[in-house]
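Case study.
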Amino acid sequence: MTVVEPRRRLPRMPDRLAAFGAVLLVLIVASALFAPWLAPYEENDPRPLDKLLEPSSSHWFGTDHVGRDILTQILYGGRTSLAIAAAVLAVSALVGVTLGVVAGYAGGWIRDVIMRITDIFLAFPALLLSLALAVVLQPSVTTVILAIAVTWWPWYARLSASVAASVSTRSYVDAARCLGVPAPVIVWRHVLPNSITPVLVQLSLDAGGVILTAAALSYLGLGAHEPTAEWGLMVQQGQALFTTNWWVVTFPGLAILVTAFAFNVLGEGLRSALDPRRTVIR
Amino acid sequence: MIGYLTRRLGQALLVVAGVVTLTFVIMRLVPGDPAVAYAGPKATPEQLAAASRQFGLDQPLHVQLWNYVRDLVTGDWGTSLRTRQPVREDLFTAFPASLELVGAALILAIVVGIPVGVLAARHKARLPDLGVRLGSMLAVSVPVFWLALTLQTVFASHLGWFPVAGEYDASLDTTSPLTLWTNITIVDALITGNWPIFTSTLDHLVLPALVVAAYPAGVIAQMTRAALIEESGQEHVRLERALGFGETTILTRFALRPALNPVLSLIALVFAYSLVNGFLVEAVFNWPGLGRYAFNAITSADTPGIAGVTLLVAVVYVLVNLVVDLLQGVIDPRVRTR
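After joint prediction, the assembly is written out as follows.
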């Protein structure tokens, strides 16, 4: 057996990475919220004389094909991306958790029907169903939100159904039932509050994926469009100029990467900290 | 096992039926009359009515759905409004190219992801672990279309190391034409010993495959790491440690095999995801696969084409899930009672 010398170990890594993600995320959210004060220029302020300027001290990230400051557009674009992510997660959690908790509490054929419906929606890869829907509806931010939410809610339905099913076997639920508390009240007062933690963790894990999908849809021209500032749209508009003007695509793409990264790292950290396998059955 | 098999098969059939219905509904939501799209803007009312009859659009909805299902089952996936070819034939030529891309990417992802995951588990909570966790997190967070554009610009346009777009050098079709067996270019070139096309395809594959591989490589590395760390808390690892095996030997020789089980089912699931993620990459690299077909269908409002791609990918997804579940049922009998 080899003798292992006592090495200086770094403190527990997940916490460090997760903390880093949290700090990053606070910075991103703050910069989106305070965009009007932080941005060096006005939103959507094309200056034809300043077209495609290289990054410099007056334009940190350069300017785009119509002379807008890219840093400014990225800051405002963050509002779009974060708003889309928040809306998608709110809608899909609302629909998914409602159906899931009902399915988990009711059990029997109600559970079967709801779970088979979620199976059907899960069979469509998210991006593909979003694509098909985004084609049917008119391209807009609302379309993106709807299209992604349609593919996202089944995950929450599935998750909350399994949690709610195990919560429903608790003795306090039995007690409430014996006292004659009506089923909707039991679900609302007892099952729901005790099933929500894993969903919250999952929400933070999913935000990164939503931001990537939304950016992809806008990149394909199926989502946000002028004059809305959006990162995926900026990449699309810049791609023809990428070989000669590297900054027009590089910075908006980095913005997407950093934001998705922050959410993913934070979500991972939360998951391993809370360890759903233990928190599910307390 | 028979009971589990039939139950699971029935479930899969039910999902496919739902998928078909949902696709049908989405298609009917498309604004604009498919008959107009087919007959063209200058068609006379008689031509329009003829097109309408030809597609059965004058029938009530439930009859249309029934006809749609009947046609699908008999192998008639409709006629593309754009290529004017049967959609099934279009998919038949496009799907192998996508398979080629995703297959290459998954091989790459496995070859990189598993060893990297082992490395992270071996040096848990030290620098290599931090590096792997950071790297895999970046790999799953990167927007594919942006990574594709960046690699294309840097390594193809500027440095000229790789071709910019396409599946292989089109001029080779005349100098050394390819005999088709499987429709997967690289496999056919290998079987028939067509080296010019084989090397050209390989050259064209590198960049798009790297981009598609990023996500699965990241997920596989994370999963391998997590599974190994969990496995090394098992009793048998304590025994092996007591017997004097080194940590690396324990991980690679004893812990890796049981830990690979969840990793394998993850790979199957990530396959379907990569197929669709690859669509964006195909668009950037002009790869002649399903993605390019889907985008052309989208821009020309070719509803049968879009429906065909949606159905095909959904069915592939259901099949992959079914195979994974059945295999797990074989390996782990506890799954069957669920």
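Observations recorded in class. The radius of gyration of chain B is 24 Å. Residues 94-302 of chain B form a domain with the MetI-like fold fold (CATH 1.10.3720.10). We will return to this complex in the next lecture.
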